[in-house]
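Page 37, continued from 36.
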């Protein structure tokens, strides 16, 4: 049996096929004459004439001898339709010729632009003054004031961690398991750590060997899976030793400053030792082209480095809380400078630094001769970086929660402002004048016009085409510096305890802020960094006015105009 086939609908009818009839292709002599007339009216080039001639030959060859048999009515109807098609064909040929001509012109202009020597200098774009004003009016600057400091390159990546050797020459084993641990190689000793056998050996022992504690402290620089177990064991051994000791005294092993430097050196630091004041020559201890072993681990390099530094900061905090006098004041100053350098690493800019901030507060409280050590500490920290935003971030490392931290924040901020303005050797920063009066002298130098003159010491390029770009770059640089300096000025004022005697000085600061900075900022939709600086100046002015309102003197109103 045959399968039923799909049938067409009964009402279906095919489209008309009159256009397929060969008779339609047969054009009468009238159309031929009209075609010649149209060709004579439209002058074409030689190539187009050749193509149209071949088209005519093909047309008449297809017509055939049956041309004479066409009825007049059908011939007139079909010829008119054919003439319309020829008109469309001629119009299409003209458009194609025009498109080819434009394409050749554009290609030629592009080759001329590529071959020009002044393309990079923008000298080929000759804008009229009206066009230049229009472009400058509606142009938008892409430069903004970054909210995150640029940072410094402190840690260089390593391919593999430095090998560690546990010194067991002076140790006597107390059990066969401990003897096996002493005789094992480094991978086998690490397996003891990972399997928890070292906790069984030393967690509740009467005493823990010091070489083992040093070895665990150095293992904090290894990959995260090893450093985590080393930190947990080191912490548990230290806490267990503190609880098992008598009330006569608590003995806790604290790493020396040299051992802390070696740990940072193992992490790939440039130079763990604090280099002298004013020296910006960093001694590279490792090749910059080496690949970091941090990148081969599960966490990213920045996260692994941050975790390792967190372990080091926590253990050092425990040591300095238990033994506040374990370091001398000179060693404490060197350690604070070293920690501030590591905190400015580029990879750590976006990560929180709570452990570092807590450790710095503990170190400040452990300085015995605090009033005398404040000046050398500020001088050392002011040279940690040569970028104003990095120094601002360094000031913010010290939380405003203790009296010593507030003193350091205020004095260091004032010193950085003077250093950035070139007034460090001119003003008596450590004289009898108050910090608000010194800040009043520096605030007048922070106006954008003065900063522009101070920063434009370098000569401008000779090419006039680069002058607008150089001017825009200089404006952004001025705005960026003024933003950091104004933030530091706010730190100086907020760290002070405003008394009735300082009320007039703070009022003078408010007037100078409005006169020298706020009124000199010209906001523009094309430069949003100036708007951000204007907002900071407004917020600072409101904050200082609020301090004035809460500390209003009862005596006669102070008029600072006589001192201006």
């Amino acid at each position: 049996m045959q399968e039923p086939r799909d049938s067409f609908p009964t009402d279906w009818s095919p489209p008309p096929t009159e256009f397929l009839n060969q008779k339609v292709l047969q054009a009468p002599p009238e159309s031929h004459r009209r075609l010649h007339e149209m060709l004579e009216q439209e002058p074409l080039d030689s190539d187009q004439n050749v193509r149209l001639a071949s088209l005519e030959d093909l047309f008449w060859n297809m017509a055939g001898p049956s041309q004479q048999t066409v009825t007049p009515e059908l011939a007139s109807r079909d010829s008119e339709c054919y003439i319309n098609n020829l008109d469309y064909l001629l119009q299409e040929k003209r458009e194609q010729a025009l498109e080819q001509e434009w394409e050749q012109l554009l290609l030629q202009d592009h080759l001329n632009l590529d071959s020009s020597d002044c393309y990079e200098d923008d000298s080929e774009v000759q804008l009229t003054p009206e066009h230049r004003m229009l472009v400058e009016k509606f142009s938008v600057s892409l430069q903004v004031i970054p909210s995150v400091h640029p940072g410094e390159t402190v840690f260089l990546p390593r391919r593999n961690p430095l090998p560690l050797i546990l010194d067991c020459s002076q140790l006597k084993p107390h059990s066969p398991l401990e003897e096996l641990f002493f005789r094992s190689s480094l991978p086998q000793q690490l397996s003891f750590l990972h399997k928890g056998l070292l906790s069984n050996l030393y967690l509740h022992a009467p005493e823990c060997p010091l070489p083992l504690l040093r070895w665990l402290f150095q293992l904090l620089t290894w990959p995260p899976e090893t450093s985590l177990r080393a930190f947990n064991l080191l912490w548990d051994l230290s806490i267990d030793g503190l609880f098992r000791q008598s009330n006569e005294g608590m003995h806790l092993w604290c790493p020396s400053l040299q051992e802390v430097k070696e740990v940072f050196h193992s992490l790939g630091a440039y130079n763990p030792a604090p280099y002298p004041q004013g020296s910006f020559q960093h001694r590279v201890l490792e090749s910059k082209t080496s690949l970091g072993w941090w990148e081969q681990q599960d966490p990213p390099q920045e996260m692994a480095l941050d975790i390792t530094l967190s372990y080091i900061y926590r253990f050092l905090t425990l040591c300095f809380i238990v033994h506040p006098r374990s370091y001398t004041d000179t060693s404490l100053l060197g350690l604070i400078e070293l920690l501030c350098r590591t905190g400015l690493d580029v990879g750590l800019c976006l990560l929180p630094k709570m452990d570092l901030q807590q450790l710095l507060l503990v170190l400040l409280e452990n300085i015995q001769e605090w009033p005398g050590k404040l000046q050398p500490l500020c001088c050392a920290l002011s040279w940690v970086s040569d970028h104003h935003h990095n120094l601002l971030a360094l000031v913010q490392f010290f939380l405003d929660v203790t009296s010593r931290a507030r003193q350091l924040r205020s004095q260091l901020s004032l010193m950085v402002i003077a250093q950035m303005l070139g007034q460090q050797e001119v003003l008596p920063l450590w004289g009898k004048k108050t910090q608000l009066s010194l800040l009043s002298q520096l605030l007048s130098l922070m106006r954008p016009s003065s900063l522009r003159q101070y920063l434009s010491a370098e000569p401008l390029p000779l090419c006039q085409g680069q002058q607008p770009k150089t001017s825009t770059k200089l404006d952004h640089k001025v705005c960026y510096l003024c933003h950091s300096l104004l933030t530091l000025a706010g730190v100086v004022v907020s760290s002070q305890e405003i008394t009735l005697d300082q009320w007039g000085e703070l009022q003078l600061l408010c007037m100078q802020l409005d006169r020298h900075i706020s009124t000199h900022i010209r906001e523009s939709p094309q430069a949003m960094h100036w708007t951000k600086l204007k907002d900071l100046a407004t917020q600072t002015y409101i904050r200082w006015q609020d301090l004035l309102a809460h500390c209003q003197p009862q005596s006669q109103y102070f008029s600072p105009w006589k001192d201006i």
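The mean pLDDT is 77. Flag for discussion at group meeting. The longest helix spans residues 72-115.
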